Each structure stands twice: as structure tokens, then as C-alpha cells.
Amino acid sequence: MLMRTDPFRELDRLAQRFTDLPAGTWSRPSALPMDAYREGEEYVIAFDAPGIDPAALEIDVERNMLTVKAERRPTAVGDSVQMELAERPHGVFTRQVMLADTLDVDRIDAQYEAGVLTLRIPIAERAKPRKITVGQRDERHQISG
């Protein structure tokens, strides 16, 4: 139902986890982890986005390319703030997913709950299995020999 667009993105995410690489920026965003599965007549994609304000989520579909962007800013900022420990990642996160033609991208439902952005995409009617009835030819139109 979908195709990964960047096979090295997971390697980048792992490298960032174990090194001191800077947080994602708009020009080089960090990976947004996801799960994808089919549930009945829908395709479900769940993105981990903890601590992100729903207003900071952007979801776009152009043709069959789904793009999800999110930005998490540091919560404690200001002249009087002295950061003692900062382990929670912040910055820009994104993920692009190529969706199959069998999905109805005009009816995507997006919900954000408990730090998880869940997209539900219905399977297109044209992609659902259907029965074809077999008819019989009318004998009156057959040529006798």
C-alpha cells in the first residue's frame, strides 16, 4: 500500500540517537517514526509525535505523496532559564510516504491523541474485490448451421 521514499532515513535516525548531531531543522529534518497497517477497509498510518502541539502538525497530499511535518520547540526558554538536562528531541520532524493508487486520498481522516498522529485512509471502491456475474447469450441471435 505504500513505498518508502528514503531507505537511509532510518539509518540517519539511529545515527542521531547515538551521536550529538543537532536536532532537525527545516532544511534537514529528523525522521518521524511511523507504523503502517491495514485494518478492515482502511489503511492506517500512525506517527509518533509526542509533545507536539497539534497546530504545529502539517499534513499534505500531492498526487499520491503524503508528507507529514511537525515541529517541537523547547518548552523552557528565556533569559532566566538555565537548562540542567535536555534529552527530549526538539526541532523539525518529517516523513514522506508514497501511497498506492488503491487508497482514497480525498477522504483521509487525521486524529492526534496521546502524542500519536493517526491517519486513516479508506481503501478506494475501485480497489475492493467485486463479483462479476456471467451471463448467457440469447439463443435467438445465434446462427444455426
UniProtKB/TrEMBL annotation:
<comment type="similarity">
    <text>Belongs to the small heat shock protein (HSP20) family.</text>
</comment>
<dbReference type="InterPro" id="IPR008978">
    <property type="entry name" value="HSP20-like_chaperone"/>
</dbReference>
<protein>
    <submittedName>
        <fullName>Hsp20/alpha crystallin family protein</fullName>
    </submittedName>
</protein>
<dbReference type="Pfam" id="PF00011">
    <property type="entry name" value="HSP20"/>
</dbReference>
<dbReference type="InterPro" id="IPR031107">
    <property type="entry name" value="Small_HSP"/>
</dbReference>
<feature type="domain" description="SHSP">
    <location>
        <begin position="25"/>
        <end position="137"/>
    </location>
</feature>
<dbReference type="InterPro" id="IPR002068">
    <property type="entry name" value="A-crystallin/Hsp20_dom"/>
</dbReference>
